[in-house]
Design a protein that fits this description.
Elements: H1 4-14, H2 24-126, H3 132-140
Length: about 140
């Protein structure tokens, strides 16, 4: 079989304008060329039609998958919304946890300061040595 480009070149070389054919042999030659071209085109068309059946079958299988793909798209949208909602909730909770962590840090620091002050007062009361200044201060009060 001759491919499409070869057929076009072959046809241009052999095919001539019928109005300029002068003799019976030229007419027969041209007719023979047309018949050869018709046979090649018929053969090529038959091959294309044979190749069409698997393509149509594949197209039908693909079309049968469309409803499943639609279902998957719907499921994906629902899942996307759920994940988005969960992510927003997680962000809000995380923000509040960070705030609580800051507050707990402040509470711990305040408790630590109170503990240190109590420790200093306890040490001061154990090691209290009256000084002239402290005695004078107590007498004034």
């Amino acid at each position: 079989m001759i491919n499409g480009a070869t057929v076009a070149t072959y046809t241009q070389d052999i095919r001539r304008d019928p109005r300029i054919l002068n003799s019976f042999p030229e007419i027969l030659s041209c007719l023979s060329a047309f018949q050869s071209e018709e046979a090649e085109l018929s053969s090529s068309l038959a091959e294309l039609l044979k190749a069409r059946d698997p393509i149509v079958s594949s197209l039908q299988r693909l079309q049968s998958l469309v409803p499943r793909f639609d279902e998957l798209m719907t499921d994906a949208k629902i899942l996307t919304n759920k994940v988005s909602t969960t992510a927003k909730t997680a962000e809000r909770v995380g923000s509040r946890v960070r705030s609580l962590d800051e507050e707990m840090k402040r509470v711990w620091e305040a408790g630590d300061r109170v503990g240190k002050v109590l420790d200093l007062k306890a040490i001061d009361s154990l090691h209290y040595l009256p000084t002239p200044f402290s005695v004078a201060f107590r007498l004034r009060c």
